[in-house]
């Protein structure tokens, strides 16, 4: 049975007598595939006649060729994705390493991590609330002291 990729051989090693056509088959088949990956029935019959193949053989050859092309595209895409993943992992590692040695631009000291930042912020809020409450209490005491001194001064006899 002949295939589009070359002429068939018999058990003795002799070809079917179409050496020149057999060498052109793969090229003609590839050219036809590049022109149209999904040929119609009439195109398959025409190709079969030109290549000396049955339409079913042409149909299966195109089917196999599409599968191979898709597999090649998938492999190529997979390789590109792997390279991108490796690049991103290296970049991520570089960023992680650079974060370990970050210094404050104002004082040159070490910076605080996000976890520590949130804890410190909560501590500052609590301290602020305490100081506001203390200031309010202090102002009330000052007002009370002023009022008491004012009452005592009016009660003083200057005679």
TrEMBL record:
This is Homeobox domain-containing protein. It is found in: Nucleus. The keyword Nucleus applies. InterPro entries: HD (IPR001356), HD-Zip_IV (IPR042160), Homeodomain-like_sf (IPR009057). Residues 30-72 form the Homeobox domain. GO terms for molecular function: DNA binding. GO terms for cellular component: nucleus. SUPFAM superfamilies: Homeodomain-like.
């Amino acid at each position: 049975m002949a295939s589009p990729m070359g002429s068939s051989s018999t058990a003795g090693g002799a070809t079917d007598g179409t050496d020149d056509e057999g060498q052109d088959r793969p090229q003609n088949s590839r050219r036809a595939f590049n022109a149209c990956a999904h040929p119609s029935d009439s195109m398959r019959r025409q190709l079969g006649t030109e290549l000396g193949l049955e339409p079913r053989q042409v149909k299966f050859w195109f089917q196999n060729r599409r599968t191979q092309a898709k597999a090649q595209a998938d492999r190529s895409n997979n390789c590109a994705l792997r390279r991108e993943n490796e690049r991103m992992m290296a970049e991520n590692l570089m960023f992680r390493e650079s974060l370990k040695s970050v210094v404050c631009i104002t004082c040159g000291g070490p910076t605080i991590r996000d976890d520590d930042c949130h804890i410190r912020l909560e501590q500052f809020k609590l301290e602020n609330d305490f100081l506001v409450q203390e200031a309010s209490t202090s102002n009330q005491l000052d007002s009370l002291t002023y009022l008491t001194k004012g009452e005592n001064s009016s009660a003083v006899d200057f005679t």
